[in-house]
Amino acid sequence: MKKIECYQPREIVKMLIYLFLFWTVICCVSVISNNDYFIEGIVCSIFFDMTIFLTIFGILVYKITATDECIIIRKWYGRCVKVNFDDITQVVFATLSGKPVDATRIHIYKGKKKVLSLDPVMENYDKMKNYLLDHIDETKIDTIS
Questions:
Q1: Is the dihedral of CA 92, 93, 98, 99 positive or negative?
Q2: Strand, coil or helix: what is 36?
Q3: Can you tell me where the transmembrane regions are (predicted)?
Q4: N or C: which end of the chain has fewer CB within 10 A?
Q5: DSSP string of 66-86?
Q6: Residue 67 and residue 12 in contact, taking contact as beta carbons nearer than 8 Å
Q7: Is the distance from CB of 116 to CB of 83 less than 8 angstroms?
Q8: 3 state DSSP class of 139
Q9: What would you report as the CA-atom Rg of the chain, rounded to the nearest whole angstrom?
Q10: Integer Cα distance of 52 and 44 in angstroms
Q11: Residue 8 and residue 119: Cα distance in Å, rounded?
């Protein structure tokens, strides 16, 4: 069973972790300094910390896995969508040259609903693109310029 994984770049997560650490230090200094806005500082700290944590984990969770018979899309916390290759009705390769090999974006449809979009900034995008070209019927592949 061949497995290919495609996921969001991790550099954004590193930047957000540094932002979280910087924000935590600022909040700790604010709390220690014993100023008049102590309660407001705590509320803002909790709000921004939760926002940064949700963003970090939202980026880390999104992953696309292609096996021999299906594509598994893990979108959010514990939410997975499994799409068999037989259920896919259309794959649209957005390209500038008119060839699917040079695709700048890939959209996968199940029925009339778009279930997946792949961006070139994702890790292993080229491997996933070639895997889709090999495993999906030519009649289901469309290209737009």
A1: negative
A2: coil
A3: 12-32, 38-62
A4: N
A5: E-SSEEEEEEETTEEEEEETT
A6: no
A7: yes
A8: helix
A9: 21
A10: 12
A11: 9
Q: Which residues contact 34 (CB under 8 A, 6 or more apart)?
A: none
d(C-alpha 97, C-alpha 100), whole Å: 8
For 26, the token pair is 């600022």
Tokens of 117: 């979009």
Q: Are 27 and 35 in contact (CB under 8 A)?
A: no
What letter represents residue 109's amino acid?
Y
- Provide the pLDDT for residue 1: 62
Q: Which of 64, 66, 67, 83 is nearest to 75 (CA)?
A: 64
Q: How many residues does the chain have?
A: 145
Name the H helices within 11-140.
11-32, 38-61, 125-135
